[in-house]
Amino acid sequence: MKFEEFTSGSLKQQYQYKSFQPTTINHGWSWEDPRINVLLERATKALGELNAFTLIVPDVELFISMHIIKEANTSSRIEGTRTEMDEAVLDEDAILPERRDDWLEVRNYVRAMNTAIETLKTLPLSLRLLRHTHEILLAGVRGERKTPGEFRRSQNWIGGSSLTDAAFIPPHQEDMPDLLSDLEAFWHNETIEVPHLVRCALSHYQFETIHPFLDGNGRIGRLLITLYLVSHGLLSKPSLYLSAHLEKHRGAYYDALTRVRESNDIGHWVRFFLQAVVATAENGKQTFMKILALRQELDHEVVKLGRRAENARRLIMYLYGTPTITVNKAMELLGIKYVPANSLIATLADIGVLEEITGFQRNRIFIFRRYVDMFRDGK
């Protein structure tokens, strides 16, 4: 089907309201718009270059974990949480009670993503995988009563306070099984020649339009993008996350999805998606380059610490994966006593590696500020 001939779906009369019945997508796609070809080339190039960084950067898993924390924090913020990056990297007992619920949502997202990525090593991308990921996402947090891990068995809606004034009403639950089966088949259909980045764009749109869960559809839909790219080999590591770009351009993001449903303009959505991939991959590359430069700079600084250099190096390597530290944690990691651990942390604070963030005299927490700021600012 040509994008230019696409019909997004139709309104279906239900009891006292009309739901939107989207067109299925598991078939060939083509387009006449040359802008899509140019963006597809740019996005493929940018994604390949980002992927190359994940293959050549030493100890890349440490840095990937920070990418996941940033994605979890940003994707959750789109849905209304207020956790900041400084909080997202802390342990639960360091979070103020009134901020803990939001923090738990971010941490659930991290756990959901890590579990899903690990599962992809042995199982293909599937509806079953998305349900399990959803179950982890909503465990013990806001939305836990909205059937975590299960597709909805009742009608939901977007915007407004009820079905009567909703901005958008997705398909009725009885129509969902066929639509979801079609979506899953599209992920793995090897008989059609559609570039994976275009499939990924169409999959995200279709998932958000079906809106198969009672809660958490936005987060799972954005997580699906990364899972799709990893499962089909476009990414060796989960290093691309669009949530920062989508949050920055939130109005344009929602408008692009709505424009498909109301005006059949699937080409506009695909262009928006590909541009988001280009911008995000470019920012991801810049972040990796900054990390490599920081690492080289700190390696030079650590050498000057003499006999403490090896412990300082080990502590900094830990901080790349978990960028907060206490004196007690340093004692545990390095197998040293309080005085040398406290002295080492004080030295790292003096040279600008660590910053104390509690203001307390006891139970102090130090953050690897320059490193965390790379992920906060790298949008």
Folded structure, characterized:
It is a single chain. This protein has 379 residues and is mainly alpha-helical. It folds into two domains: 10-22 and 31-281, Fic-like fold, CATH 1.10.3290; 304-377, Arc Repressor Mutant, subunit A (Orthogonal Bundle), CATH 1.10.10.10. Helices cover 58% and strands 5% of the residues. It is built from 15 helices and five strands. Strands 3-5-4 form a three-stranded antiparallel β-sheet. Strands 1-2 form a two-stranded antiparallel sheet. The mean pLDDT is 94.
Secondary-structure blueprint of this entry?
Blueprint: E1 9-14, E2 17-22, H1 34-56, H2 60-78, H3 85-88, H4 100-119, H5 127-137, H6 176-188, H7 196-210, H8 217-231, H9 243-248, H10 250-263, H11 266-303, H12 309-321, E3 324-325, H13 327-334, H14 338-350, E4 355-356, E5 366-367, H15 369-377
Antiparallel strand pairs: 1-2, 3-5, 4-5
In short:
This protein has 379 residues and is mainly alpha-helical. The chain has helices at residues 34-56, 60-78, 85-88, 100-119, 127-137, 176-188, 196-210, 217-231, 243-248, 250-263, 266-303, 309-321, 327-334, 338-350, 369-377; strands at 9-14, 17-22, 324-325, 355-356, 366-367.
Main attributes of the structure:
globular, Arc Repressor Mutant, subunit A, 379 residues, mainly alpha, 2 domains, two-stranded antiparallel ribbon, 5% strand, 3-stranded antiparallel β-sheet
